[in-house]
């Protein structure tokens, strides 16, 4: 079963509460989503492998740790996942970025895939699938299906707000994928929105609607 990590760091919680406020506008929403993404990138890379390397300080030669050079890629689910990419790249500037376009049909709530463009070597990379919202879980499940079909082996899902229904569905569909979120909310409403949530993440990020 994929582990669920709720990042309870005070800075993350504070910033998440800021963007829940319906009166926060596009510019601030976008900025704070990226700030939270950077803080979450710090947490989700905690188990990155390191290796010994020799370094010469002004005083002495010593053996210390550096990253073992594992390849990673950030995979935003369009549109709203785009809001987390720059925040991740702040900490992992050399990462490749793959895109998966997906939208939910408003009546059925089923995701519809419309675009996939991945780095050619995703089978050799650790992938961070980013999307602020995990509601029914349908979009994340289908996005990860698409990645596995293309050879992906190591995947983490990173979101901001999740409904328990979405966490359960994703854990059942992809038990090998760990889930990192900033807030676990109460439930979904009849329109598939997370309660209390933060509304439509794509619309709030891009000023549509
Ligand atoms: C939102 C969100 C997720 C999805 C979550 O995207 O960004 O991708 O809904 O819902 P689910 O867990 O029930 O699948 P949306 O379909 O609104 O597309 P958009 O980002 O392009 O607006
Ligand atoms: N997608 C969103 O953007 N918000 C929700 O609450 C649910 C799905």
UniProtKB/TrEMBL annotation:
Residues 6-208 form the Phosphoribosyltransferase domain. Signal peptide: none annotated. Allosterically activated by GTP. Pathway: Pyrimidine metabolism; UMP biosynthesis via salvage pathway; UMP from uracil: step 1/1. 5-phospho-alpha-D-ribose 1-diphosphate binds at residues 79, 104, 131-139, 200. The lineage of its organism: Bacteria, Bacillati, Bacillota, Bacilli, Lactobacillales. It is an enzyme of class 2 (transferase). GO terms for biological process: UMP salvage; uracil salvage. InterPro entries: PRTase-like, PRTase_dom, Upp_B, UPRT, UPRTase/APRTase. Binds 1 Mg(2+) ion per subunit. The magnesium is bound as Mg-PRPP. Belongs to the UPRTase family. The gene is upp. It comes from the Bacteria. One of its GO terms (molecular function) is uracil phosphoribosyltransferase activity. Its cofactor is Mg(2+). It comes from Loigolactobacillus backii. GO terms for cellular component: cytoplasm. This is Uracil phosphoribosyltransferase. CDD domains: PRTases_typeI.
């Amino acid at each position: 079963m994929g582990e669920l990590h709720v990042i309870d760091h005070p800075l993350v919680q504070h910033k998440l509460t800021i963007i829940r406020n319906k009166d926060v506008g596009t510019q601030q929403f976008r900025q704070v989503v990226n700030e939270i993404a950077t803080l979450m990138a710090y947490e989700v890379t905690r188990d990155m492998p390191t290796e010994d390397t020799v370094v010469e300080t002004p005083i002495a030669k010593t053996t210390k740790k550096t990253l073992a050079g594992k390849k990673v890629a950030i995979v935003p689910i369009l549109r709203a996942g785009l809001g987390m990419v720059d925040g991740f790249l702040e900490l992992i500037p050399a990462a490749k970025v793959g895109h998966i376009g997906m939208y939910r049909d408003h009546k059925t709530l089923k995701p519809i895939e419309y675009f996939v463009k991945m780095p050619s070597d995703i089978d050799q990379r650790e992938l961070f699938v980013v999307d602020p919202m995990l509601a029914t879980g349908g979009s994340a499940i289908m996005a990860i299906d698409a990645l596995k079909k293309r050879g992906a082996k190591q995947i983490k899902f990173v979101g901001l707000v999740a409904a328990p229904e979405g966490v359960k569905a994703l854990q059942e569909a992809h038990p090998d994928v760990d889930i990192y979120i900033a807030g676990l909310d109460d439930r979904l409403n009849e329109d598939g929105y997370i309660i209390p949530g933060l509304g439509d993440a794509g619309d709030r990020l891009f000023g549509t609607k």
